[in-house]
Amino acid sequence: xxxxxxxxxxxxxxxxxxxxxxxxxxxxxxxxxxxxxxxxxxxxxxxxxxxxxxxxxxxxxxxxxxxxxxxxxxxxxxxxxxxxxxxxxxxxxxxxxxxxxxxxxxxxxxxxxxxxxxxxxxxxxxxxxxxxxx
Length: 134
Fold this sequence. Notes:
Helix 2 packs across helix 4.
């Protein structure tokens, strides 16, 4: 059954079997979101946990999606999956930044602060680029 026919059947009469088929058709979106998000494995959570959170987000997206708005399901689902993962991370971690911590974002603010405090405007660019390995 095509995705359009599957959605039409599901919106007409929702059933667990149809929902399961839709989840199976779009499970790659969960893998995509996990891969594209800077998630660091912590002592509490690993990739299987993130995958479970993503599946929950996908399930919620299926329940809430309205094709009459004219948006693609994939666009809506990716946002909902990412949001669900972040929501669950907030529950499990004291600080959200410890799990989502790309190197560049943690490096730049401290370098900028130290440069602003230690030197004037002239050497600022050179020192900042050296601190940030540019």
